[in-house]
Amino acid sequence: MERIAVPERTAVAERTAIEPTADPAQLGFDPARLDRLDRHFAEYVDSGRLPGWQIVVTRRGEVAHASTYGYRKREERIPVEPDTLWRIYSMTKPITSVAAMMLWERGLFELTDEISRWLPEFADLRVYDKGSALRPYTMPATEPIRVWHLLTHTSGLTYGFLHNHVVDRLYRDEGFDLYPPAGMDLEAACEVWARLPLLYQPGTAWGYSVATDVLGRLIEVVSGEPLDSFFAERIFDRLGMTDTRWWVEGDDVKRLAGLYTPHPIDGHAAHADDLGRLALRRPTMLSGGGGLISTAADYHRFTQMLLREGELDGQRLLSNRTVRFMVRNHLPDRQDLGTLSTGGFAETTLDGIGFGLGFAVVEDPIPSRVPSNVGEYYWGGAASTAFWVDPVEELTAMFFTQLLPSSTYPIRPQLRQLVYSALVD
Questions:
Q1: H or E element that contains 326
Q2: Which residues of 140-168 are buried (b: 16+ CB within 10 A; e: fewer)?
Q3: What is the pLDDT of residues 408-424, one digit of tens each?
Q4: For labelling, which of 15, 19, 134, 229 has a CA lying 20 to 30 Å from the CA of 245?
Q5: Which domains does the chain have, with CATH numbers?
């Protein structure tokens, strides 16, 4: 396969281009070591495993490295540009969590409140005990789902696409897989999820789930606003995230990256046409768990707000104390995911990793055998996108591509390995 040159910046891309703003050496990086990032991940493209990618690394609020490589639409030979639009899927979750905590700061709910106070369909829940999908046996929930359960994925809810448990199968039987059933809105989805059995008693385990979608519905009811309006007015407009949206239309369609999956024979990235086209129409269900499309420049502004503990360019979304509280380990007895996880898919390794209010949190970097710092927090998306914020090094990193599922290649640990090994101060 031919080697692909890093594309030139175009006039259109300058609208939302993100470029280095400081000499990497002055920020504590060895520039030659940073260049290893591009050489390493270029091989993913040259070998056909990825269509293309975008990487951004910052330190102390300055962009130390920003690069693109390969194609956003490989079949048409259209290169990745700095203003490429990416489906960020579960990188929507931290945004939803920030939105919820903005309401919490106004005293509109407590983290210990039962969610049935606003979503009565979640009263009188049942928990799976035994049996098959055709004949499941359940027991009453001994603990209600509380707001903090949603933020920490300890609610007992699950995802249909996990394919790990009888309850996952029950979600699929109701039409919930990677996407919700056609024509179903968020309110109706919550009503379905509430009548399905929980995977476990709330607060007793950790399981990746639709919990953040339920949190999005809670935001709507508590605020009295649709989720898209709340995000636009309270977060995107204030942070200058002008390119983040729920679907793509008009002239922006040409900026949207194609969506890919590994070909079952040769493993090369193959265009997932049917799933990819869903981004071209307004969704009926506003998914706070995975519905947003964004750019590197926009998500950079979100991560910088987090690094600055709730404030960016004079716009304060959260108190610094609130952000510090969110990125601590909120799992019961401060256990890690290796102990509490139900074994389903997650956008993270498990051992040594806790979970805060919307983020995975590093408690001990040694078990993963990947460099990081205690207190680093992060998440990723189903199409292999990822970000992290390291308050100790005052560092953020982001990786964007469009390959489902995110577990296909070890992109995230390799990104950490290369970024931290480039730090030399």
A1: helix 320-326
A2: ebebbbbbbbbbbbbbbbbbbbbebbbbb
A3: 999 999 999 999 999 99
A4: 19
A5: 13-89+229-420 (3.40.710.10), 97-227 (3.40.710.10)
